[in-house]
Amino acid sequence: MKRLVIFDLDGTLLNTIEDLGHAANYALEHNGFATHTIASYRYFVGNGVRRLIERTLPEEARDTATIEKLLRDFKDYYNEHNTDFTKPYDGIPELLELLRDMGIKIAVASNKYQQAVDRIIGHYFPTIDFVAVEGQKEGVNVKPDPSIVFSILSKAKLPKSEVLYVGDSAVDMETARRACVDSVGVTWGFRSQKELVESNALHIVNMPNEIADLINQ
Predict the structure, then answer these.
(1) What range defines the domain where residue 69 resides?
(2) Residue 196 and residue 106 share a domain
(3) Chain segment 25-51, per-residue pLDDT in tens
């Protein structure tokens, strides 16, 4: 039986793509660069905000000073607008409440910077007592490095055999593999089912309530 479920945030618990896209486009336009369609951001996100900014820029403009400037502008905008269009995926609030009522520990492991993670989780899931909410921190490698999972495990005090890691991308499946925990790929997120299959997801689910079914397996 699983006693801890670790969730990725963007594309797994919440559809954040529109707010992320608007923030990045604001930073680009503010600095004289071309913007991108919101749909294209599904393929820019997943490895942290710095990598997102790099991917939005022309290759010749990806120098450190430019990235740092856009990163500051992105955060200035996103910190004020990260709940404008973001919303939980259908069935996610009910799933988290069910897991809570079952006595299953719940955690978040995100490549989004910690300040934004804390605000968004508090805004959308105020009644859920997460055992850990981990975002990107200075000096800590982002996923797929497994450090963030190990940090959660140290707080939950559970063996890896009792953990499910849930995400929507190859980055998440690789994170689970490196951490040696069972992976669950979700098809409602930013990436395709094909990507999940090719990244060797142990389980693939199409609806949030299917995750609860995996708890007792």
Answers:
(1) 17-81
(2) yes
(3) 999 999 999 999 999 999 999 888 999
Over residues 135-194, the pLDDT tens digits come to: 999 888 999 999 999 999 999 999 999 999 999 999 999 999 999 999 999 999 999 999
The reply to whether 118 belongs to the active site is no
Beta bridge partners, 87, equal 15
In angstroms, the CA 2 to CA 118 distance is 25
Please check whether residues 46 and 127 belong to one and the same domain: no
| 106 and 198, same domain (yes or no) | yes
Of 8, 10, 73, 182, the active-site residue reads: 8
